[in-house]
Amino acid sequence: MDKLLIRGGRALQGEVRISGAKNAALPELCAALLTDEPVVLENVPHLQDVATMVTLVRNMGVSVERDENRVRIDAAKLSSPEAPYELVKTMRASVLALGPLLARFGEATVSLPGGCAIGSRPVDQHIKGLQAMGAEIVVEHGYIIARLPQGRSRLRGAALRTDMITVTGTENFLMAACLAEGETVLENAAQEPEITDLAEMLIAMGARIQGHGTSRITIQGVERLHGATHQVVADRIEAGTFLCAVAATGGEALLRHGRADHLEAVIDKLRDAGAQVEAVPGGIRIRAQGRLTAQGFRTTEYPGFPTDMQAQFMALNAISRGAAQVTETIFENRFMHVNELLRLGAKIQVEGKVALVEGVERLSGATVMATDLRASASLVIAGLVAEGETVVDRIYHLDRGYDRMEAKLRGLGADIERIK
Ligand SMILES: CC(=O)N[C@H]1[C@@H](OP(=O)(O)OP(=O)(O)OC[C@H]2O[C@@H](n3ccc(=O)[nH]c3=O)[C@H](O)[C@@H]2O)O[C@H](CO)[C@@H](O)[C@@H]1O
Ligand SMILES: C=C(OP(=O)(O)O)C(=O)O
C-alpha cells in the first residue's frame, strides 16, 4: 500500500496548477448518459474516483475514450443500466448514475453506496424525490431498483423540496428533470459551484434550466438532449487545500486556474488569520509569513465554509497562535483526523460537533494513518510543517480526490515522496 514520506520544514514557493473539480467531473460523467450523442469533457482531473466512474459507465456498455484531460463519452448504446456494489463501494458519487439512467432508459439498478468514514450518508432524499417524479423504487439486497411504471416512457416534472440541502441529491434531480415531462421545481436546492457547472453543461446539451446557483432551480423537461463539449470547473477544494498548505508553511504561491470567487468563506478566514490572499488574473495568489492566528469557523452549505475544507483548515489552526473552535454541522463523524493530528503533537479536544484547537509552536513528525480524503490532506499539511519525518499511510483515500498531489507539492519545493 502506498504511503507518503514528508520531511517537514520547507516553505512552499512558486506556482501550481489547479485541476478540474472531482465533484463536478463525477456528475458530469453521469450526465453524458442522458444523450445518445457523444459528449466531450475537458479539464478532467486524474483521480481514482474518475477512473472508478469511467469503469462504472463502461460496465454499462458505454464507450469512453480518455486522452490526458479530455474524456469522450458515447452512450449511444447501453447494455445494462446497473451500478454493481463492487464498483460503488469505494465511491458515493456512483449514486449519481440513478437519475440519468432512470430518465433516459426508464430503469436503473444502483447499489447503495458503501459505508463511509465521515458519516452514515443515507440516500433517502434521492429516492423520495425520484418517486415524486413518478419512479417506482424498491431497495432490496442492498440495491436501489428503480423503474418507470408500465406504459410510461418518461419521468414527470414535480415540485421537490428536500428535508436538508443535498448536493448529489440536487444533481440527481437536475439531471432526471431535464428529460422529464413538464416542469420540475427544486426548492432548497444546493448552490455549490459544481451544481452551476453541471447545469451549464446540461444547458449546452439542450436542457432548459433556470435558477442554478440559487436555492430554487426550475427545469422544463425536453424530449431529448444532444452532445456537447464542456470544460470542468476548477476544483475549489484542491485550491483551498493548497492555500492552507502554503499558509501553514509560511510560503508564497500562485494557484493558476484557482477560482477565488468560489472560495470566499475560506479566503476570508485565511485573511483574518494574517495571510495575504488576492484574486489575480488567471488564479489566486497567497503570501504568508510566520505563525498565523487560529480562526474559528462552522461548516455549512455553500456559500458557507465547506465541510470539505474543515480538516485542512484545522491543520493550519493546529500550528497557529491562539485557540479556535471548529464546528462541523454537515457530517456527524468528520473529525477522524483529530487523533492523527494529536500524534503529531497538536492540541485538540473534541466534544460532539465541536473541536477546540489550541495552536502549538511546533509539530513533530510521526507515522499517521489517513482515514478519508480530506483527513489525508490535513495530515499532509501537518507533515509539511512538522519537524522531521512524517509518514502518511493509506493514501488511497488521497488518490481518490487529489490529482498527483505529491508531484504538485514537490513543484512548490516540498520534500515529499511516495513510497511503497
Ligand atoms: C461527490 C460529491 O459531490 N460529494 C460532496 C457532496 O456529498 P453528498 O452529496 O453526498 O452530500 P449531501 O450534500 O447529500 O449531504 C449533506 C447532508 O445531508 C444528509 N443526507 C443527504 C442525502 C440524503 O438523501 N439524505 C441525507 O440525510 C447527509 O448525510 C449529510 O449529512 O456534498 C458534500 C457536502 O458538501 C461534500 O462533502 C462532498 O464532497
Ligand atoms: C466527502 C468527499 O467526497 P465524496 O462525497 O466523494 O465522498 C470529499 O470530496 O471531501
From TrEMBL:
Residues at which phosphoenolpyruvate binds: 22-23
All copies of domain Enolpyruvate transferase, residue ranges: 7-409
Keywords of this entry: Cell cycle, Cell division, Cell shape, Cell wall biogenesis/degradation, Cytoplasm, Peptidoglycan synthesis, Pyruvate, Transferase
Superkingdom per UniProt: Bacteria
2-(S-cysteinyl)pyruvic acid O-phosphothioketal found at: 116
Keyword Cytoplasm on entry: yes
Active site, UniProt feature: 116
Reaction catalysed by this enzyme: phosphoenolpyruvate + UDP-N-acetyl-alpha-D-glucosamine = UDP-N-acetyl-3-O-(1-carboxyvinyl)-alpha-D-glucosamine + phosphate
Locations listed in the record: Cytoplasm
InterPro entries named in the record: Enolpyruvate_Tfrase_dom, Enolpyruvate_Tfrase_sf, MurA_subfamily, RNA3'P_cycl/enolpyr_Trfase_a/b, UDP_GlcNAc_COvinyl_MurA
Gene Ontology terms for molecular function: UDP-N-acetylglucosamine 1-carboxyvinyltransferase activity
Pathway in which the depicted protein is active: Cell wall biogenesis; peptidoglycan biosynthesis
EC number: 2.5.1.7
UniProt binding sites for UDP-N-acetyl-alpha-D-glucosamine: 92, 121-125, 308, 330
Role this protein plays: Cell wall formation. Adds enolpyruvyl to UDP-N-acetylglucosamine.
Family to which this protein belongs: Belongs to the EPSP synthase family. MurA subfamily.
Protein name: UDP-N-acetylglucosamine 1-carboxyvinyltransferase
Source organism: Ramlibacter aquaticus
